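Write out the bound-state structure for flavin-adenine dinucleotide.
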Amino acid sequence: MKIVVCVKQVPDTWAERTLNPTDKTLDRAKVDTVMNEIDEYAVEEAMRIKEANDGSEVTIVTMGPDRAVDTVRKALSMGADKAVHLSDEALHGSCVMQTSDALAKVIGGLEYDLIITGSEATDSRVSVMPALLAERLGIPQLSLARKVTVEPGTKVTIERQTDNGYQVVESSLPAVISVVEKINEPRYPSFKGIMAAKSKPMTTMTAADAGLDTGSLGLEHATTQVTEATNRPPRSGGEIVKDEGDGGVKLAEFLASQKLI
Amino acid sequence: MAEVLVLVEHADGEVKKVTYELLTLARSLGEPSAVLLGGSVSGLADKLGEYGAQKVYIAEDPALDEFLVAPKAEVLAQIVSDSSPGAVLVASSAEGKEVAARAALRTGSGLLTDATGVSDSLEATQNIFGGAIIVTSKVSAGTPFIAVRPNSTAPEPAAASPETVTVTANISDAAKSAKITDTVVEAKGGRPELTEASVVVSGGRGLGGAEHFELIEKLADSLDAAVGASRAATDAGWYPHQNQVGQTGKTVSPQLYMAIGISGAIQHRAGMQTSKTIVAINKDPEAPIFELVDYGIVGDLFDVVPQLTEEITKRK
Ligand SMILES: Cc1cc2nc3c(=O)[nH]c(=O)nc-3n(C[C@H](O)[C@H](O)[C@H](O)COP(=O)(O)OP(=O)(O)OC[C@H]3O[C@@H](n4cnc5c(N)ncnc54)[C@H](O)[C@@H]3O)c2cc1C
Ligand SMILES: Nc1ncnc2c1ncn2[C@@H]1O[C@H](COP(=O)(O)O)[C@@H](O)[C@H]1O
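---
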């Protein structure tokens, strides 16, 4: 099995995230970054499929600034075999449509039976990348998997998480899968894994290398634009009461005063 | 006025509440038309008229139910190309976003997700980074596709007699590739769906065990509320993951959110910060959740919750 895993570097959710005052894009330079947490589950799932199928290979694909190389290394240290890093100033400010085009072009140049992504990036939170990759590559979309079963060469079946349970969905290969956090428990990179990652092949590409139309990239050509950004005013003025044996009654009175009961 | 398409969300032969919210919103933006897709859905058209749909596009094809997302996206894209609407509104649910994304791509359009409001000029309001920043965004290519969060608009009936337009679904073989072979409902029935509920009662690690979630459920039932949980509670297996609220769970925006035995970590806030009224019960006066509340009780949930449930039941 040839497996491609898309991983994204995102700002640490614990850090204060801000927008660039000039172009209202995420300020990626100032903030601590990590691998998008769900993408660790995507890498883990790829490793489990690889370990169950001799001769498999896992390739990491990421699009992001130069420093995203840290996230690529982490994925390699978890056991992936090689990586492609698309990095180009011209990609700054890309919308989901542009990002999906870029990723699809990079992946289109690789061999793959399965593409695995996370369910959602913690910075954009759009959750549509797997759908867009499936649309662009013309292959089945198996998104929001909480369980994946592969029959190499023939088919793949997932349990797709829904609001009130799950759906069983199956398709032929190749296919795009996205995973939710329930699917597995990602491994920590071992010391050996970290050392080995340093010598694994990593290709760095520019937009032109990936075959992207350099006249249609970045913020200026994005399909969506942020026109205004304001910090949410902190909530304040809340009343906080210590329970003196009548806390439940007091809370009920508050709810009644707000016409909530 | 420009036509505004609303993609209808329905399940088990019923239109979901979010669709009525979208139709209400669409009325403020232009002429609402509903798009009804599924194996056998024409019976739902009348309901859409009750909320002001001027037109209902109906496409019926078994493939729309049997295969995931792609067939719906193809038909929606086809309707958008034929009718050139001013905008397309969908629910910001998992499937709503995926259908919209693929249809937007097919029509050379842009997509905004998780909108909490849409202005006359079709600019969407979004809360980003866990609700810390409010942005206004617009689509600058093709037809604006906007996925709107449930509970963003109060649904208001406005009777209309919609014209029905039967659409022939031209679904490609490629779109019939991810086959749904089974649909399993696991959630306990009876309670409203988390993202649609107007009241959400959530429990966290403070409950100390799965058996104590009964306290939360009883309180929720006294309020006709949905039950939520923090990740600490779902990770411990005390409550199903489907009920997790937060960055890696559901985003909710109810009239009332109650956080019980939840500390209020930033990842939890990301899923509930835009709730209209927030209350908390926590024994630690320093818990960060108290920074968000309209009303908070510092106390032991095992004392406060049963008393609250009793008081609410008494007042009914
Ligand atoms: C990438 C990432 C994503 C995450 N996504 C999510 C997410 O989607 N949703 C989410 O919720 N979390 C998420 N988390 C986890 C989050 O950081 C917190 O760990 C989690 O929200 C804590 O849950 P909690 O508040 O129930 O537990 P705790 O933080 O342990 O808080 C328990 C609270 O209960 C109170 N308490 C204890 N006993 C009682 C009692 N008898 N009466 C009253 N109060 C009591 C305590 O004072 C305490 O404040 C994420 C973390 C990461 C790193
Ligand atoms: N720039 C990127 N590079 C690589 N993978 C990405 C990128 N953006 C999104 N993804 C993948 O798509 C998934 C869903 O992201 P999103 O649709 O942006 O919420 C993520 O979990 C990643 O696996």
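---
Chain A has a mean pLDDT of 94.
Residues A 13, 37; B 204-206, 230-233, 244-249, 261-263, 265, 267-268, 271, 281-284, 287, 300-302 surround flavin-adenine dinucleotide (ligand 1) (CB under 6 Å).
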